[in-house]
Every structure is written in structure tokens, then in C-alpha cells.
Write a structure and sequence with these properties.
Layout lengths: L11 H11 L6 H59 L7 H6 L4 H5 L3 H17 L6 H4 L2 H56 L4 H5 L5
Helix pairs in contact: 1-2, 2-5, 2-7, 5-7
């Protein structure tokens, strides 16, 4: 068997094969002891895999929440912008319009949630800062915008946490592959020594591994 590097690519299937092969002769104390080492690697992988499934679901959940929050904020902002445009008779250079939208409102609404949240935060602050200078009709949009902002910030934080957790999980997966590669190399060397001690051919030792 040729090896391209010190740490070759090892999968859970490789470890499972070696475990099953080593456990195939339960009366062999030496091989049973080695099988227990492979079993430990498999248990670790099964835990990692289960955690990975849960984390993937968390990322899907967070992504869905961000999309819903984005749509909700877009709807609240569109309603606000429509009333504002009506108040200024469609004049997008009017001071009142530019107070809330230095750039066209359609461009703000088209932004992703990450970029839209700061823009809408400024709009809400502008509504709260000078209530007497803003028509009352616009103030009715303040609470829907605030509620949409809260949902948006929560969704973004949830997504950031989910992605950070997934990043840590991927590092854990990589560490397992490196550990498994080293462990199988050690097991391979041990089985080779057993074969030599028992005057068995190299093919006997090779049967315990499927790289």
C-alpha cells in the first residue's frame, strides 16, 4: 500500500472497515484490543456527525429567519416610502423626502438585510428626533419599522451565531480526520508487526485496511 503523505485522507468508512475487520475474530486478543481503538474513533465521528446535522439545521433556520425578516422590513419600509412620496407629491428632491432618503427609496429597499438595517435605523431616529417637523401620518410608521428592525437584528445575530458554530464544527471535523489518519497509520504498523511475529504474509495485514 502506497502513502502519498504523512496524513492521508481518511473517511469514517475507512475506520469502520478497519474496525469490522479487526473485530471479525473476537477470540484474537491482540486484534480485539486494536479494534477497540478503531471503535473509539467511530464513536467520536458519530458524535461529530450528529452535531453537524443539528448545526446544518440551525443554519437553515437562521437563513430562513433572515429572509423573512428582510421581507418584513421591506414591507414596512415600502409602506413608509409610499406615504412619504404621496406627501411630497412625488417630488424626490423635496427636503422632507431627502431627510429620510438621501438615495432613492427603491435602492434602500433592494438592499440585503445587513445593509438595510442601518438605513432604516437612521429613518426611525429621524422620526423620533423631531416629531413636530414630521407630518403625523409618517409617525404611524415608526412602530412597524421598529418592530421590523428588532426582528431583523435578532435574525442577523442568530445567523452570525449559527455560522460561527458551523465554522467551529468544521475545524472539529478536520481535527478528527487528522487524528483518524494518524491512528490508522499506527494501527497499520501494529498489524504489520503482528503479521511478522506470526509469520503471516503481507496480504494478511493488508486485509484489515481499505485505503
Amino acid at each position: 500500500m502506497s502513502r502519498g503523505s504523512d496524513l492521508y485522507d481518511v473517511t469514517a468508512d475507512n475506520v469502520a472497515y478497519t474496525y469490522e475487520a479487526l473485530a471479525a475474530v473476537p477470540g484474537d486478543a491482540e486484534l480485539s484490543k486494536l479494534a477497540a481503538r478503531a471503535a473509539g474513533l467511530l464513536r467520536d465521528w458519530e458524535c461529530i456527525e450528529a452535531d453537524g446535522d443539528a448545526l446544518e439545521r440551525a443554519v437553515i433556520r437562521a437563513t430562513a429567519h433572515v429572509r423573512v425578516a428582510d421581507a418584513t422590513l421591506d414591507a414596512a419600509l415600502t409602506a413608509f416610502a409610499n406615504d412619504l412620496v404621496t406627501l411630497v407629491d412625488g417630488n424626490l428632491t423635496h427636503a422632507l423626502y431627502e431627510k429620510f432618503f438621501p438615495e432613492p427609496h427603491e435602492e434602500v429597499i433592494a438592499m440585503g438585510l445587513d445593509a438595510e438595517v442601518p438605513e432604516v435605523t437612521l429613518i426611525v431616529h429621524a422620526l423620533d428626533a423631531a416629531p413636530d417637523a414630521v407630518p403625523g401620518k409618517l409617525h404611524g410608521h415608526a412602530e412597524p419599522l421598529r418592530a421590523a428592525l428588532r426582528a431583523g437584528n435578532a435574525a442577523l445575530a442568530q445567523r452570525a451565531d449559527a455560522l460561527a458554530d458551523m465554522g467551529r464544527h468544521m475545524a472539529r471535523v478536520e481535527a478528527w480526520h487528522e487524528t483518524a489518519a494518524s491512528a490508522l497509520q499506527a494501527l497499520e504498523a501494529r498489524v504489520a508487526r503482528i503479521a511478522t511475529a506470526r509469520n503471516l504474509p503481507v496480504q494478511w495485514a493488508e486485509a484489515y485496511f481499505n485505503f
